[in-house]
Amino acid sequence: MIVPHSQKSIFSLRLSSISLYIALLLILGLTLSHLSLFISHQKRKGERAQLKYLEEKVSTQQGQIKNLTREVNDFEQKMRHLFRLDEKLRVMVGIKKKAKESSQKQSAVHSPQSTVYSPKIRQLYCQIEQLKEEGKVRKESLLKLEEDIHQEKLRRLEVIPSIYPVRGVLSSPFGLRWGGFHKGIDLVAPYGAPIRSTAKGKVTFSGEKGGFGRTIIISHKFGFSTCYAHNSKNLVEKGGRVKKGQVIAYLGNSGRTTGHHLHYEVRRNNIPSNPAPYLNLNLNNILKFSERRWLDNIL
Questions:
Q1: Where are the domains of the chain?
Q2: Can you list the residues of the chain whose pLDDT is less than 70?
Q3: Which of 5, 31, 161, 222 counts the highest number of beta carbons within 10 A?
Q4: Which distant-in-sequence residues (6+ apart) come within 8 Å of 133 by Cβ?
């Protein structure tokens, strides 16, 4: 029954149970249809979001692969450079490898196992870790080589004239003198002062040598030789071996002299060199040495 608000007459509407059932089915069908459309829309929306996420993930991983590939290439280039440097330095100073480097050992390297990383990225990470391990080994090798080179330099410095033969005052330098050429330097010190060998070597002459008086000549490695003249007494004989700093004679005025002093010469390949730079030569001041160019090939 329907009662209108106006003055119109009241009328009634009768529905059979079947009609009501059909109406309910229609309403339910429409509801389910709308619900299905809504679910389908949400599903497609989720799929689009998932697709976008996957696209972003692929793009990110492609960037990671590119960066990691570049990093691997950089590491490999550095390793090759370090290896060449290691070999070059060993050849320069004549130091051989005592054993196979530990870099040849296979070290346990773990690549990321997370599903976040693609197999390609995990492979690149593994390569990077292996290169890092190789870098550590190569660094240790170079540090050891640096120490070996230092020790080798010290050993070689033992056979190169590099100390004062006697502590005294320079009275006559190397070069032109009195219309001639002075092939060494003269050092004035108290009579009888000890004269020391300026490098390790072998005595090739010990005795009287004309105007030089009592003289000692010592042969060293790398073509060096040294001469000590006007001695009052020689303490070593020809053929004897001497150490750096060993007392070999006493200062005097034998031969033609104007007073007691040491005449000291340094020769390389029998060519006179100015002894002054050799009087206090060591690894700290060697870079200031005027003849450093050829000396670098020795040290």
A1: 16-157, 169-291
A2: 1-15, 89-118, 120-121, 286-299
A3: 161
A4: 103, 107, 109
Q: What is the pLDDT of residues 134-187, one digit of tens each?
A: 777 777 777 787 787 778 778 888 999 999 999 999 999 999 988 889 999 999
The position carrying tokens 């020809």 is 238
46 — alpha (psi -120 to 50), left (phi > 0) or beta?
alpha
Q: Cα separation of 139 and 207, whole Å?
A: 53
From first CA to last CA, the distance across the chain in angstroms is 121
Nearest CA-CA partner of 252 in 244, 243, 261:
261
d(CA 24, CA 16): 12
Does residue 184 contact residue 275 with C-beta atoms inside 8 Å? yes
pLDDT given at position 5: 59
Reading the block at residue 281, the tokens are 């030569």
Rounded Cα distance between 228 and 196, Å, is 9
What architecture (CATH level 2) is domain 169-291? Distorted Sandwich (2.70)
Q: 0.85 cut: is pTM over it?
A: no
